[in-house]
C-alpha cells in the first residue's frame, strides 16, 4: 500500500528532480498562481492540465483554499501518487490528446482558468489544436490559460532562440554547480523498483503512459493554435530564457 507520508516523500523527490531541469520552477509556480489570484474570484474553478502528481495543484489550493482545482492527467502512477498525497484535490484520468476529454471533468460551471506546467509540449501540434479548441469550450469568457513550459522562440529568430536557451542553461549551471539532483529516468527507475507502486506501474505500462520527445516546443505553435481556438490575447507573463509563462485570454 502507498501511504500518505510515503506519497509526500516521493513527490518531494519528484520536485527535486524537476528542479534539476527548472531551477526557477518555484518562481514560475508563484507567478502563475499570482495570475490566477489576480482574477479576483473568491472561489475560482481551475483545471490543471497534465497535472502529474499534483505539485502545482497543491500549491494553488494552499494559496487559494476556496478554489476548486480539478487535476487532469493520463498517467495512472502519477495520479495514484497524487491521490495518496493530496486528498483535498480532485484527480481525473483523461488523455488530453483524445477528443471529448473535457466531459470527464464533471464541471457544473465554466472554468475561470486552466493551468499547466511542463506538460503541454509533449502534445503534437496535430493534437494540440483540437485540445485548445475543446478547452475554450469549458472556459468562461475572459478565462485564462496559463502555461509554464520550455517554449522556444520561432525559427525565424534563431539567434534569440539560441540566447534564450543559453540564459536558461547558464542559470542551471549556477544553481547546481555540477551537483545536479537525480534525473527523470533515475526517478522513474526508482519508482518502478518500489513494491508500493507495483500495481500502478503495471497499469502505467499497460496504458502506454510514456513520453516520446518534445512534440510542440515552439512558442509560435502554441500562440497560433490558441488564437485559432478563440483566445483573443496571448503574451508572456514571466520568463527566464526559454522557460516562460504563456498566458492566453478566452474571447
Task: Give keywords.
single chain; 9 helices; 251 residues; alpha/beta; Rossmann fold; SAM-dependent_MTases_sf
Could you characterize the architecture of this molecule?
The model has no long low-confidence stretch (mean pLDDT 95). The longest helix is centred in the middle third of the chain and has 19 residues, at 158-176. 44% of the residues lie in helices and 21% in strands. With 251 residues, it is an alpha/beta fold. It has one domain: 3-Layer(aba) Sandwich (Rossmann fold). It has nine helices and seven strands; from the N terminus they run ααβαβαββαβααααββ. α1 (4-19) packs across α4 (76-85) and α5 runs parallel beside α9. It has helices spanning 4-19, 25-37, 55-63, 76-85, 125-136, 158-176, 184-193, 198-207, 219-229; strands at residues 45-49, 68-73, 90-93, 111-117, 139-150, 231-240, 243-250.
If you compute it from the alpha carbons, what radius of gyration comes out, rounded to the nearest whole angstrom?
A: 18 Å
The helical percent reads: 40-55%
Structural class: alpha/beta
Report the major sheet: 7 strands, mixed
Instruction: Give the neighbour order of strands across the main sheet.
Output: 3-2-1-4-5-7-6
Helix tally equals 9
Measured by DSSP, the beta-strand proportion falls in: 15-25%
Using the alpha-carbon principal axes, give the shape: globular
Q: Name the CATH superfamily assignment.
A: Vaccinia Virus protein VP39
Q: At the first level of CATH, what is the class?
A: Alpha Beta
CATH architecture: 3-Layer(aba) Sandwich
- The string of secondary-structure elements, in order, is HHEHEHEEHEHHHHEE
Number of domains: 1
CATH topology: Rossmann fold
For the terminal residues, how far apart are their CA atoms? Answer: 46 Å
Q: Give the rounded overall mean pLDDT.
A: 95
Got a strand count? 7
Low-pLDDT stretches: none
Domain Methyltransferase: 46-143
GO molecular function, one term: methyltransferase activity
InterPro entries: Methyltransf_25 (IPR041698), SAM-dependent_MTases_sf (IPR029063)
Keywords: Methyltransferase, Transferase
